[in-house]
């Protein structure tokens, strides 16, 4: 039996409510998961929340709550957002759950038994916001975090260390043998040169606060929040409570992360796993960073985009579509109202929406609302057919590269072609001229093309795809359809009743 396809998002910190950056990663994972399910794979799609650590403890304290109260409150915001975005995750992990605490202690013990953990003293810098240890050189004279720019703190405390230095060569060999492990490739090069620059042993426990998982046999220490957090990926797969399932699900096929946390996933995580003897994930894909109207998103600037507000105004599918269509996956992008409205009016309203509404409108008008029976095809019909059948191949290729933008480009090129087919075939003139058989053929080709489009856009804009599916008269739910049927031409049944319906994607005025 084929292995379950396992896709993950980062687990998000509960110190803050979700914004479009978090939505981005989770939407991308959902698209992969839906695409895989359509392709017939068994899928395990995991997301969740990262609830321990000094940052969470401090933020809770500042708001007069216990850390778990803060977590219990914020986790609802994340779960609520995933529901509104139609995210179909198979599990949701919270690091405060018992199954996870057990898993972290077990992993720690395995690494310890391997001789990779020793007690020492940490004396250097720490960024609480990024929960990351930093050296003198990294913080510079200004004493700020090179990643987030916030002031860092001086630490001097007893600490357990992980012998990361021991894994420098094994990691380099692993990257060499698995050239696709880190994607995109320019990120891979960054990681490799970082590792070649030398790896210091990593502090993996803290004593100066208590909100975390205590170290087995030395409860004064809590386990470093990144060691804790990364282990979520194996916990949810069944480690160590259900090893049969674990062996079926693990390793992860893809960890999706933002570029900010690639180092943790591409260096620390594989090193912990190598040490414990567990298999390594197959791929870590780091996507880019969103700015807003050209500026870095930040609370102090007050420009953080609330995904709930975007969904209220434009709908979940629009947000899903925009984030994956606007920017090549892997590169940075800019979120702006103008760009968003441009995509809605252009791609969604004029492109897909218009194609569906005019095609179904003509069937209503010229064919009594039923899919007609086609006659013999003409050359342009055959071009549409050929392009439609080639689309699945292009989509699969793009999805294998995790290139959502390429997938959407291919689909929207096809939509443009079919819109052109409508213009050139001019069904209204065929009707006027009484060319019934030709008219029927054109209308049939249109429904067939729309069927394939609906299936292929389903992972990206599931609600709209479902709606189109219903309107073209297919009774079985789209989610139980298989992508293989997008490789077949002629599946739509003449005689099916279509439903024109209202506008799928209303146009917006850009202010
Ligand atoms: O780092 N643009 O959690 P986090 C794009 N708990 N993506 C963004 C973004 C932006 N402006 N801002 C955030 C953590 N993200 C850890 C992860 S995993 C074992 C532990 C996304 O709440 C992006 O995926 O800070 C980034 O990696 C993640 O949110 C960071 O979320």
Overall radius of gyration: 26 Å
Helix content: 40-55%
The strand count comes to 16
| Integer average pLDDT | 97
Question: What small molecules does the structure contain?
Answer: ligand ME8
In terms of structural class, how would the helical and strand content be classed?
alpha/beta
Number of discrete helical segments = 19
Biggest beta-sheet profile = 6 strands, parallel
Strand order of the largest sheet: 3-2-1-12-13-7
- Indicate the low-confidence ranges by residue numbers: none
Q: What is the end-to-end distance?
A: 54 Å
Beta-strand percentage range = 5-15%
Overall geometry comes to elongated
Protein topology:
Elements: E1 5-13, H1 20-38, E2 43-50, H2 54-62, H3 67-84, E3 91-94, H4 98-113, E4 117-127, E5 132-134, H5 136-139, E6 153-162, H6 168-177, E7 182-183, H7 185-196, E8 202-203, E9 205-206, E10 214-215, E11 218-223, H8 225-230, H9 232-235, H10 243-249, E12 254-258, H11 262-276, E13 284-287, E14 290-292, E15 295-296, H12 307-314, H13 316-326, E16 333-335, H14 337-367, H15 379-400, H16 404-425, H17 427-432, H18 436-457, H19 462-471
Parallel strand pairs: 1-2, 1-12, 2-3, 7-13, 12-13, 14-16
Antiparallel strand pairs: 4-5, 4-6, 6-8, 9-11, 10-11, 14-15
Helix pairs in contact: 2-3, 4-11, 6-7, 12-13, 13-14, 14-16, 14-18, 15-16, 15-18, 16-18, 18-19
The chain binds ligand ME8.
Ligand ME8 binds at residues 10-13, 21-22, 24-25, 50, 229-230, 232, 257-258, 260-261, 289-290, 297.
